[in-house]
């Protein structure tokens, strides 16, 4: 086998290091915590009776609080952890899928994301097939067939952002990968070269790099339940404190870092998760935006709406990811000189990792009375917890 099917060989031969396994454990805890936090979301009800992987991934993603692999611009864990868990897999199955997703998404490149594709779904379906297939014991050839069988479901677009469609299409990708792996395990045939044709049709030109840790580049952890492109504007706004006599707030950022932020005047909590204007206003009002900041009621607050109308977003040309350049905020006051702050990286970025206290606070905020249980999860217990909380087929 040649081409993208070589990733199946990488996955089949994967021998995780202790650092890889620890990365998988942190990803598991984070993913389950944000899933537990969303158990009362309507998506949990709408997906009742669907496949387990679909429910776990969709509910896990609906708050947009799950981790991100920045080089691929994709949410790796919320796809690969449910796919692995649904088929009885553990850390190695998750890492095999996550590593394929990270490499495949990075090879598709920024041009793929810039054109409007949702890389979590395009790269996610074949990766979920690898996670599930590894859990089911498929060899290299079986994994390659599973990846090829997932190709018909490897889609998803950014226009879904701000609606339930975003989290649901992530669930569809995870479920498609599990379905493909089970079919491959049953003996279904497929041509692995379909992966290369699909890749070319999507405009992919890169070549996946099999070297490095299981998840090259690490994972970014979110401290606020919204699009990762908002983590830096929020962190920057928090540096301003609560400025007085605000006449105007100017946000200057690279165009690529604003790509997913398609709702300038959000009407709902889901739309607010993709609004730079709202995120800045909420950070100035709330201090530390949390789940309560991204509800329909929070978006309608007069204080926030008034401040939101004073936010101007200025896109500077260029950039090739959602953290390109820096975010610069300038506050023009009714009297006196302007106040200005700039920030390169948000807290939780792999190069500026969240502290243990921040991570513990996130789990506590998400899981409440179950925080200690979630913090101590292993893969078997995680599967039991999700089956109890979100039973699926």
UniProtKB/TrEMBL annotation:
Record-linked InterPro entries: MmgE/PrpD_sf (IPR036148), MmgE/PrpD_sf_1 (IPR042183), MmgE/PrpD_sf_2 (IPR042188), MmgE_PrpD (IPR005656), MmgE_PrpD_C (IPR045337), MmgE_PrpD_N (IPR045336)
SUPFAM superfamilies according to UniProt: 2-methylcitrate dehydratase PrpD (SSF103378)
Domain MmgE/PrpD N-terminal, residue spans: 50-196
MF GO annotations: lyase activity
Pfam family, any one: MmgE_PrpD_C
Record-annotated MmgE/PrpD C-terminal domain positions: 224-383
Domain of life: Bacteria
Homology family: Belongs to the PrpD family.
Stated name of the protein: MmgE/PrpD family protein
């Amino acid at each position: 086998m040649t081409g993208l099917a070589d990733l199946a060989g990488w996955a089949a031969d994967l021998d995780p290091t202790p650092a890889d396994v620890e990365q998988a454990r942190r990803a598991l805890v984070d993913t389950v915590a944000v899933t537990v936090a969303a158990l009362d979301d309507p998506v949990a009800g709408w997906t009742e009776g669907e496949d387990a992987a679909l429910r776990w991934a969709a509910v896990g993603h609906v708050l947009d609080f799950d981790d991100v692999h920045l080089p691929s611009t994709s949410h790796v864990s919320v796809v690969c952890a449910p796919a692995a868990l649904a088929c009885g897999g553990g850390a190695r199955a998750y890492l095999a899928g996550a590593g394929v997703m990270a490499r495949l998404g990075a090879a598709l490149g920024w041009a793929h994301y810039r054109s409007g594709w949702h890389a979590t779904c395009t790269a996610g379906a074949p990766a979920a097939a690898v996670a599930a297939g590894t859990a089911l014991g498929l060899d290299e050839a079986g994994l390659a067939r599973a990846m090829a069988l997932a190709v018909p479901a490897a889609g998803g677009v950014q226009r879904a952002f701000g609606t339930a469609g975003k989290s649901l299409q992530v669930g569809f990708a995870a479920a498609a990968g599990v379905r493909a792996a089970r079919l491959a395990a049953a003996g279904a045939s497929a041509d692995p070269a379909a992966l290369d044709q699909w890749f070319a049709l999507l405009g992919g030109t890169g070549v996946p790099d099999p070297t490095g840790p299981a998840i090259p580049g690490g994972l970014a952890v979110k401290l606020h339940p919204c699009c990762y492109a908002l983590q830096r504007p929020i962190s920057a706004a928090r540096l301003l404190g609560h400025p007085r006599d605000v006449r105007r707030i100017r946000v200057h950022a690279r165009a690529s870092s604003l790509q997913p932020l398609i709702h300038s005047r959000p009407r709902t909590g889901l739309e607010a998760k993709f609004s730079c204007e709202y995120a800045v206003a909420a950070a100035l009002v709330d201090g530390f935006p949390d789940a309560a900041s991204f509800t329909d009621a929070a978006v309608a607050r007069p204080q926030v709406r008034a401040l939101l109308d004073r936010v101007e977003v200025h896109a500077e040309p260029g950039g090739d990811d959602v953290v390109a350049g820096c975010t610069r905020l300038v506050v023009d006051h009714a009297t006196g000189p302007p106040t200005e702050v700039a920030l390169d990286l948000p807290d939780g970025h792999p190069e500026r990792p969240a502290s243990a206290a921040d991570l513990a606070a996130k789990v506590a905020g998400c899981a409440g009375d179950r925080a200690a249980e979630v913090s101590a999860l292993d893969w078997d217990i995680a599967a039991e917890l999700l089956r109890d909380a979100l039973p699926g087929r």
